[in-house]
């Protein structure tokens, strides 16, 4: 997690005194969203670090998934103390991310990465990483697809499964511009996986992936996160242009395989 606070950003999170009073009252009654809004205010507008930390922990304690995810990041990467969330920083990070993962695909992906890169070190950490990435995928988190493709193809955390790996890499390559650095890396992995499959197996995966993407790969209404091809982060005409290039690459690749 990286970022910066601009003047405009601070203005966007500004609160009037009456709004602060109302939010504090709601948070005192257990409203996690109100506590999270107070954290936004103090971290982005007032920039009062002590108050920001207090409200982030309050929102996390009340079960706000993004607050739990952000606090896990601050404990893991910024050396913030775990407080009441765990006896050790690692225990706190695992507890926070496991809780947030119930509803947040991004948190599930973070949890998978923490297991896979060895920050969290249970004996079965790779199996737990695979499980977390599957949960992230169920939440439509696109960042988990490449990790799942790699782990399933290489047999990390369980048996190798090239067919299932292929499903996730097909999703990935259709949601990233093929000429981008990431796109080229994904296509390289995809073609390695394809060497383990026959055309009938690949065609079945194409049908499954196409059915999912038809519903979810949309500019402003799909559930994929991060949004496919950067989604609403770019003008719609540019998104449609990138989509056309991605589909062109996909169609040409499938035709080449079918004629071999």
**Overall mean pLDDT:** 94
Pick out the low-confidence regions.
Answer: 1-10
Note the run of SSEs as H and E: HHHHHHHHHHHHH
- Give the overall shape: globular
Treating each run of at least 4 consecutive H or I residues as one helix, how many helices? 13
Report what the structure shows.
The chain is mainly alpha-helical and 260 residues long. It has 13 helices and no strands. It folds into three domains: 1-62, no CATH class; 65-138, no CATH class; 142-260, no CATH class.
Brief description of this entry?
The protein has helices at residues 7-12, 17-28, 32-45, 49-61, 65-77, 89-100, 105-116, 125-138, 143-154, 162-173, 181-194, 199-216, 236-258. It is mainly alpha-helical.
What tags apply to this protein structure?
single chain; mainly alpha; 260 residues; 13 helices
